[in-house]
Specification:
- The structure is a homodimer.
- Chain A is α/β, with parallel strands linked by helices.
- Chain A folds into two domains: 167 residues, Rossmann fold (3-Layer(aba) Sandwich), CATH 3.40.50; 144 residues, 3-Layer(aba) Sandwich (Rossmann fold).
- Chain A is built from 16 helices and ten strands.
- In chain A, the strands form two sheets. Chain A has a five-stranded parallel β-sheet with strand order 2-1-3-4-5, sandwiched between helices.
- In chain A, strand 9, helix 15 and strand 10 form a beta-alpha-beta unit.
- In chain A, helix 8 runs antiparallel to helix 16, helix 11 crosses helix 16 and helix 12 runs parallel beside helix 16.
- At the A-B interface, helix 4, strand 2, helix 5, helix 12 and helix 13 of A face helix 4, strand 2, helix 5, helix 11 and helix 12 of B.
Chain lengths: 347, 347
């Protein structure tokens, strides 16, 4: 029997394709709204926050604008009187109903910011409050772990960054290839079950990545934790190297996420070697041939350049999480203790 | 026999007092350098990064400026052509020799930013490269886990934020009380050994906080991990609530860090109750009376308002880490696999 989560993973190529088609025509409006602003500030929690990590790197590296992740409590609890008149605020929430995200958008607007909502529900409170809404066309998501709502958010991030870029959107040809690459990875699921088996036998899991795929690493870590109910840490390889690598030993399974090109693959390969030398089993998702060889086990990623690779590289990670949950006798569709619309404060 | 780490924890009141005295007179120069800038961007790794998390919240909530933590790879690996002409970059490194931090400062300067170094070595590469240096007067730190170099960095953050604040520095009276409160906590060490004993008996540890003390939670998590060689996750209570709380059960010891006042104590108290209801042992550091009562075990914090509380609230956390390391038969002064000056790339 196929799980709902597996079905929704398989729906992603279609959902991303639909979202890209729907949002491409909004680039002019996005560029117009952004005119006169200098900074992009992302606001989200959970998987949506991981989508924003990608958005942040893509905006900085490809649209050459300062970008950052907001601390929502600065708005919701401290009501800070920050001047945001040169900021574009991008609030991301699948449901569009997470209270603190809506509150932060309202605060930003009152402080002078232009506001964008990225949500799967065009009638939600978040969409109603924003200057402009990018609707992710994921369709209804029934499994609790976000999959197609997450990758369609990544598609929205790519549209946003290419709308802000001063040059013509050079990434469009690669973006157009994303759905096909996602479909191929879903179908082939190469290395996925072997990776799940390794994870099932490990006492401890860490996930590492860096740069444009750092958000992917965080998302795989969060999915593993929430769906498979085990503590997992997601770390950039730089932070891992700075200290926590000291606690890595043969008890650890380390998932390392990389693109096939870009300036961080070499460093990620070194980290994979270092982790193996400390006794860890390393599961490499994506990367180039040298990276794959450096890992104990390789799960191939998409044939896409780094800047758009996150949209498809997460797919084998999702498949691995779904397989692991079943292997552990858990229901991937409704993990213990989680619900679909999350509130972060009890009040 | 006293460990070096214990000795350096005890030296903090003096070191912070010295640092505040040395940096107070630089406020005019700081304000002058910041003139015309609108954003503060912090750059660091490890404990210094945790100091920057405090700096970020304090600048946003008290100096009313946008502030963010930079992703160094955007500079060092992607060489992004971001316009930083309205940004003040604050690079924090104990040694002042961490290559990626120096490189990021050079990149920021070449992109138009004004640059500040916060370092314990006024002759370091970082200090030489910056427009203005805030020297932390911690003295030489011999134990590998940062203690007095971390709290003196927090003192530098407080000086920076009060220099940027549009109003006269209202926090000065509270800041002046910090060294005495630190000294009291070192001397009394109330609840510290009981907390270490609880942690020694727990299979898994998480640390949570939020807002101005979120960086304190991250620092206690990092210290526990690096010094006691156990995987520890530091999470804001909002992120904890958003998902990872699902994996909390009676195997978990949860350390929750709070100030005696401020808008997040109530939420932290609710989280402490929630964690206990899920079976976790909760160790509360600081907070008000209601918070202390909600925790399984209370470790008193300083009698300081939230905005400056981080300088002293970490002290019982450090004492707890030092006691736990000894309890586990480890040497807190030189944890396995770490060295004092860290490089994040192998090249």
């Amino acid at each position: 029997m196929t799980t709902q989560m597996a079905q929704e993973i398989a729906e992603q190529p279609e959902a991303v394709s639909r979202t890209l088609d729907a949002l491409r025509p909004l680039r002019g409006e996005l560029a117009h709204l952004a005119r006169g602003t200098r900074h992009v500030l992302f606001v989200a929690r959970g998987s949506s926050d991981n989508a924003c990590v990608y958005g942040r790197y893509l905006v900085e590296t490809h649209a050459h604008r300062m970008a950052a992740l907001a601390a929502p409590s600065v708005a919701t609890h401290y009501h800070a009187e920050v001047d945001l008149s040169d900021a574009l605020i991008v609030c991301v929430s699948q449901s569009g109903e997470t209270r603190e995200i809506v509150e932060t958008l309202d605060w930003a607007a009152s402080r002078g910011a232009r506001t964008i909502a990225v949500t799967n529900d065009g009638a939600s409170a978040l969409a109603r409050a924003a200057d402009l809404t990018l609707i992710t066309h994921a369709g209804r998501e029934l499994a609790v772990p976000a999959t197609k709502t997450y990758t369609t958010q990544l598609a929205a991030m790519a549209i946003l960054a290419t709308a802000l870029a001063p040059t013509p959107p050079a990434l469009d040809a690669e973006l157009a290839r994303v759905p096909k690459e996602m479909a191929r990875l879903v179908e082939q699921r190469e290395g996925v079950d072997a990776a799940a088996e390794h994870l099932a036998q490990s006492a401890e899991t860490i996930v590492s990545g860096r740069g444009l795929l750092f958000g992917t690493a965080l998302e795989v870590a969060l999915k593993l934790e929430e769906t498979c109910l085990r503590p997992v840490r997601g770390l950039s390889y730089a932070d891992l190297r700075h200290g926590p690598i000291a606690v890595v030993d043969s008890e650890v399974a380390a998932v390392v996420v990389a693109a096939k090109d870009g300036p961080v693959v070499a460093g990620l390969t070194e980290v994979a070697i270092d982790l193996r030398e400390r006794g860890a089993t390393t599961i490499g998702i994506g990367g180039d041939a040298t990276f794959a060889k450096a890992c104990s086990l390789s799960v191939p990623g998409p044939d896409l350049t780094e800047a758009v690779a996150p949209l498809a590289t997460v797919v084998p990670g999702q498949l691995m999480v779904e397989a692991l949950a079943r292997r552990l006798g858990l229901d991937p569709d409704s993990p213990r203790g989680l619900s679909k619309v999350t509130q972060t404060d009890a009040d």
